[in-house]
Amino acid sequence: MVLKRRYVIYAQDIMVFTGRSRSYAYSILSRIKLFYGKEQHQLITFEEYADFHGIPVGDLIKTLFDTNT
Predict the structure, then answer these.
(1) How far, CA to CA in Å, does 24 sit from each of 3, 7, 31, 68?
(2) Counting beta carbons within 10 angstroms of the beta carbon of residue 37, is it exposed (0 to 12), middle (13 to 18) or buried (19 or more)?
(3) Helix, strand, or coil (residue 8)
(4) Most buried pick, 14, 21, 27, 45, via CB within 10 A?
(5) DSSP 56
(6) What is the pLDDT of residue 3?
(7) What is the Cα–Cα distance from 30 to 39, expressed in whole angstroms?
(8) Contact 15, 29 (CB under 8 A)
């Protein structure tokens, strides 16, 4: 089975990773877009999210996609 790798983080991912609400997740996405000077239609990558919060991107991806938990 071939697994596809995603590069974009969504609000649902943020909700799972932080344990916070949907409104919090969307507000974080908006703050990151403002920080990086992105337009509303542009997407946020896992790397941008991790960098914004000062966490290792590997930890983020492992937490979200580790199937052994």
Answers:
(1) 29, 21, 10, 27
(2) exposed
(3) strand
(4) 14
(5) -
(6) 53
(7) 10
(8) no
Q: What pLDDT was estimated at residue 5?
A: 79
pTM metric for this prediction: 0.86
Give strand pairing partners of 45: 8
Per residue in 16-69, pLDDT (tens digit) is 999 999 999 999 999 999 999 999 999 999 999 999 999 999 999 898 888 665
- Assess contact for 47 and 57: CB atoms under 8 A: yes
User: 58 CB contacts (<8 Å, ≥6 apart)?
Assistant: none
How much is the pLDDT for 67? 62
Q: Both tokens of residue 9?
A: 């983080």
